[in-house]
Amino acid sequence: MKTQHTLWLVAITLLVLFGFTQCRTTEQTATQANAESLNMYSDWHFMLDDNPEFKQADFNDNTWRRVTLPHDWSIEDIPGTQSPFSAAAKDAYNTGYAVGGTGWYRKHLPGIDSGKQYLLEFDGVYMNATVYVNGQEAAQHYYGYTGFQVDITPFLHPGQGNVVAVRVHNNEQNSRWYSGSGLYRQVTLHTLSASHIARWGTSVITQAGNQSDSAVLVVNTALQRDEIDKAGGLTLEQAVKLNGKTLLTQRVPVSSDNISQTININQPHWWEPASPVLYTLSQRLLKDGEVIDNMDTRFGIRTVALSPEQGFLLNNKPVLLKGMNIHHDNYLLGAAAHPKAERRKVLSILNAGYNAVRSAHNPPSSAFLAAADELGLLVISEAFDAWNKRKWENKNDYSFVFSSNWQGDLTDFIARDINHPSVVMWSLGNEIPEQGDALGAQTAKQLTDFVRKLDASRPLTVGANMSGEHARAYLSAFDVSGYNYEPGNYVHDFNAGISAVMYGSETYSKDAFAYWQYVEDYPYVIGDFVWTGWDYVGEASIGWTGYAPEWAGLAPFPWTLAYTGEIDVLGNWRPAAFYRQVLWHTGQHGISAFVQSPSPSLSPTPNPTWYDYWTFPDIHPSWSWPGQEGKSLEVTVYSVYPGVELWLNNTLIGTAQAGKQNQYIAKFTVNYVHGTLVAKGLDISGNVQEAWQLTTAGPATAIAISREDQQLRADGLDINYLPIQLLDEAGNSIYHWEQDQALTVKVEGAATLMALGNARPDSAESFKQPFRHTFRGKLMAVVQSTGTEGDVVVTVSGQGLKPASIRFNAQ
Description:
This protein is mainly β. The protein contains eight helices and 45 strands. An eight-stranded parallel β-barrel has the order 22-23-24-25-26-27-28-29. Strand 7 and strand 8 form a beta hairpin. The radius of gyration is 27 Å and the shape is globular.
């Protein structure tokens, strides 16, 4: 049994890179004295083409398309078509038939001053990025998911025009899921004095052994000093603030490039999901008493402990990890990490009862982690999907550069995100091909030794799809073992000393009850992360057909989505998400009912000889089944209550037992007639505690449109999600797919239509055109601010339907 598992206490804090709040835009004034952080989201020139002349400062890019960041060209219509997908895509089902290619971005920089240092920070570029400044190569960065920084000062011409050009090459055969392409995350330009606080150079760690009424913070700060300033005269001042109020201030003379200090906090507000309190460390670098640089770092005070006897402890309190795996895409927005979209995803996950995510299989965006910090979502942040050996035929995946790049990428991976309290573990890999041989064990130790030098405050983990004795050498490098689909060896591996603490890093949704029993019964099994929580583009149809026996060749074009999420790509709960409500006793939706489709609701018909482990029953929250009148249908009821009654048009159909002894499931057979189906949950005394109702809908006659967010900032960046729903004459929601139809969306005023999406897994329709079919009665529009204030009017129309509109204001 590994000694580091004996109540191994760690602590961590948070650096929230609020690019859209901390970093000023060109229209805003600087918020930092003697330092500026410019969010470079606007006025990029883009061309989907490749020419070495594009890097030259004097190249005429006036005819290029202007784009706003974050930007993903792979979600845009392929030139000459009205679809971003192609049956001829080289990666086929892996990336959902999306394509890559080569694109160039050019940005004309604002005024450049001599005597300043200019640092260009990329939160992520997919992929193979080469950065040029005034025609000269300034940096290369292969991996598409780690952030990186480029000192562009040596290439600039003060007082003249300056141009940054970025060549991005998505060379395909590099990913097993939809990756997106381009500058899909934030880009920031830092203007700094010659001596300054290193960006990504400050860490705030909560020291182990803290008491509930006090905390000790260890603050490490890296400085970059001009040669003149190394002689002395610099002072570092730092203040801890909460809600804008300064709690304490320290000053220390600067005598080296690395400064370590301890700070005592009395009566701290501990960061935890129910109360994710964030502090700010405000640092100022002074030269002879004058401020020459400053930087704010947001962090949380919290500890993490692992114990075979008590499990996962957050601030010394046991927490069961109710987790899901997520990929990074935002469906109709592609991989573009819009802060509003990332925050919406985090909030939706929490509202559905999950408290943790695993970022499969790559680092998430800073915007996602900022939202997780603020809203209280726990994150296992994963670095790689491959080490020395490639996955399948993906000759350009991370294994292509692993031997030369892993140290730099892990350094950036840790440095960017070390202060996020939401990140509770670092995961260094997923289903690594060499995990079962000596090379895998050796590499695992090499990576974990390296990361512990960068951050000793978090447990290190891995997603392993092997267990038992042959996994011992590999798993021994990690503090906690993540098992992908290996529940049969949980108890064995604990008893054999192979893993002292473990969790299901990937589990099957259809087996949720069985997996969760391990978490409830064995404290050393600290959580369960379903594959997958949120549906995604790529691995097309894995949740419908499953994998073919040869582990290749999923459903043909136009399938684009995995269709395996408990939450669909638009954030709507699928039946499995409702089952979580009763399995986890979340307090919402203690009963829900679904109807088995009498014939497959999608095509092709799933092949029963394929590996369909990820598929879920073809059940639906609908009592509209045209053509099934008088025929029997199977009804599945999820209920936290011990008894269930099922009623149809005020007639009792039957009663059944549910509760834990029946895995919270009751089933009925019902002859279909139009009307209202009601499932009622009964307590042990037979009293009705809760009901769930399904009503037959008539033909679609109207459209409803609503707005999820009540604010649209007139900054040219902010977005709003607008759900659209087909309705019958009585106002009932349309669900059955036979009534789906094309709708047209028109946006006028101070916003533009950014995307339309319907969550249909086998659709190759455009996200960018102003028309699209509904799927099971639903459609989602996303609009983006134009940058000017004023009214926004969105109108939705369809053949034979009463149009709907909504009006709001961009401020």
